[in-house]
Amino acid sequence: MTTAGLSFIIIGASVSGLASAISLKRSGHSVLILEKDAQLGGAASILNGCARVCPNGSKILLDWGLLDAETKAKAAPMPGFAFFKYNAGYSEGSEPDFLGEHRWYPELLFEARGGYMQFRHHDFMRILYDEAMRDSSSRVSVRFGAEVVKIDCEACSVTLRSGEIHTADAIIGADGARGIVRRTLMREEGVSLDRDVPIGVALYRDLCMRMISLLGFYEYDDIGSTVFDMGRSTQMRAQLIALPASFCSPFVPFAAAWIFPVGRENDLALSLYTPDATQDGTWTEEPEKNINDVIGPCDIRLKKLASLAGPTTCVQLKKPYALESWVSKSGRVVVLGEAAHPSPTGGLHPYAVALEDAVFIGKIFSHTRDRGRVPEFLYAFQEQREKRCARIREIDLEYVEACITPLGPMHDQRDAGMRANHAAGKNAMEGDFQQMLDDFGVVFGYSAADDADEWWINWGRFRNTNTENGNVEADGRLRSTSFISITTNATKTGNQ
Ligand SMILES: Cc1cc2nc3c(=O)[nH]c(=O)nc-3n(C[C@H](O)[C@H](O)[C@H](O)COP(=O)(O)OP(=O)(O)OC[C@H]3O[C@@H](n4cnc5c(N)ncnc54)[C@H](O)[C@@H]3O)c2cc1C
Fold first, then answer.
1. Looking at ligand 1, which atom is closest to the CA of residue 48?
2. Which of 1, 119, 159, 378 could form a disulfide bond with 327, CB atoms 3.0-4.6 angstroms apart?
3. Number of neighbours of residue 45 by Cβ within 10 angstroms
């Protein structure tokens, strides 16, 4: 056992890559991050981004000492949201058709130890990047414009497009759902990336800079939330959500739009879920169509925002292939974040879940400097995180599906339920969406740090003798222990 930290290569300088670097640095290891883009957060020309950080993620920022005034000043808090019909309020001066509202229960946020925050994607990257680089001249380094084109899992090395080769004790694939590490693991399992199947829904997203005033009914209250006064007796500190169209159109059989405040400069993010099987873009490329081309007949506020849309992105929602193993057969390469468990595009949870992954992996690796234990720790990461990540993915998808419920009895029942709840002074999601409300509590209340500690206390520390017992091969791979076989033989239902 050596006292020097382990060396990690992280592929991808986005949320999970930067957060994992912070976490591993805190545990005394050194990290080289390789990012293919030339700059942090992708091209500056596409300011598409809204990073929604749920309480399970913001408590991590708090624990890392990152929730200072400067950080808070970059986020719009999100105390709840309000639901409106998509196909009403067509004309200038008309009222939106209100269905009901959801406010996060204060006790839920209190117990979760975190608030709900919405940053510009670029701002959020900068916060993580600065923390990763702080006081870390030797421990963390980031190379931009460094695209990894080849991974040798056995040698634990990567080759860059430039031909350079880098080697480490472990490689972390934080390179997203279409990244090379996920593809490498899929190849090990004998499948190709086209096993991620589009479900026929695309998310268009645009960031409308300093546009809150466009809606004409906002002000800031004493906690700085955006207040949408929708012309009612009570003002709603809420984000505005327009729900699916209740009219039949051959072009837009369903659509759902979210408008939410981002950052503190009065920006509005406009997201539109729409059926679109033709565009398969990314967060960094402009699609052929603009939001304005696909929005169809809708509330005038939505229309206005869409007409002002700048560069838009369009990303398909996919049913991802569920990797049998997040860890390479060599036991030295692991995926996390989107590369391990791709989320429904634009879901509520991916940022927070990426932060959770980072905390978990950093925390468990705080207990070892032993290269021989790398495979065991990487398998433990999958074993502990996989179930939760899969469940959160389902929750995110249920949320999207609820909003894009096509016309029919379920659609009508959903709207009637929300209106009735509102009339009774209740949360719009009570009743029909009670399970979703309960799920929020479970998701927000989780602490990745506690979970990692629990793994160590219940499992990790008892395996501390693996090296001495001769359970580890010369190359660091664990011999066939019950732990390995349970993990690698786990049956996945996600791919059926
Ligand atoms: C530029 C950008 C903007 C985004 N904007 C939004 C948004 O507005 N709203 C939203 O909900 N989600 C957005 N996302 C997605 C969001 O970041 C993820 O859903 C999630 O939060 C965490 O993702 P991740 O860090 O695991 O992977 P990702 O965020 O997908 O990041 C993967 C990183 O790996 C890099 N990479 C990929 N391949 C290689 C390679 N071969 N070599 C080196 N580096 C590589 C990519 O350039 C990227 O930086 C965006 C992602 C990106 C990359």
1. 8
2. 378
3. 10
Testing ligand 1's pocket by substitution, the residue of 150, 165, 283, 351 carrying the most ligand atoms inside 8 A of its CB is: 283
Residue pLDDT, tens place only, 290-332: 888 888 888 887 888 888 877 788 999 888 999 999 999 999 9
Helix (H) / strand (E) element for 240: namely strand 239-243
Residue nearest to atom 12 of ligand 1 (CA): 346
Q: Decide: 262 and 239 in contact? Cβ < 8 Å.
A: no
Rounded to the nearest whole angstrom, what is the distance from the C-alpha of residue 443 to the centroid of ligand 1? 22
Distance 74 CA to ligand 1 centre (A): 20
Query: What confidence tens digit (pLDDT) does each residue in 46-76 have?
Result: 665 789 999 999 999 999 999 988 898 888 8
Q: Hey, how many other C-beta atoms are within 10 angstroms of the C-beta on 173?
A: 31
Q: What is the pTM for the complete model shown?
A: 0.89
Calculate ∠ Cα 17-313-343, nearest 5°: 45
Look up residue 461 and give its two tokens: 């520390």
State mean pLDDT over 244-248. Answer: 57
Can you name the residues that pair with 143 across neighbouring β-strands?
A: 34
Q: How far apart are CA 407 and CA 472, in angstroms?
A: 58
* Radius of gyration of the chain measured on its C-alpha atoms: 23
Q: How far apart are the first and last CA of the chain?
A: 43
Determine the distance separating the centroid of ligand 1 and the alpha carbon of 15, expressed in angstroms: 7
Tell me which of 278 and 176 has the higher pLDDT: 176
Distances in whole angstroms, Cα of residue 105 to Cα of each of 111, 210, 374, 389, 431 = 10, 29, 41, 24, 16
In sequence order, which residues have a C-beta less than 8 Å from that of residue 387 and are 6 or more positions away? Answer: none
Q: For residue 177, report the distance from its CA to the centre of ligand 1, in Å.
A: 8
Q: Is the pLDDT of residue 251 over 70?
A: no
CA angle 477, 366, 17 (to 5 degrees): 80
Q: Where residue 411 falls among pLDDT bands split at 50, 70, 90?
A: confident
Task: Name which residue sits closest to atom 2 of ligand 1, judged by CA.
Answer: 283
Q: Could you report the per-residue pLDDT of 132-144, keeping only the tens digit for each?
A: 999 866 799 999 9
Q: Is 48 near ligand 1, meaning CB less than 6 Å away?
A: yes
Could you tell me the domains of the chain? 7-67+120-195+322-397+441-488 (3.50.50.60), 78-115+197-319+404-433 (3.30.9)
Q: Average of pLDDT values for 387-403?
A: 90
**Residue located nearest, by CA, to atom 3 of ligand 1:** 283
Residue pair 271/204 in contact (Cβ under 8 Å)? The answer is yes
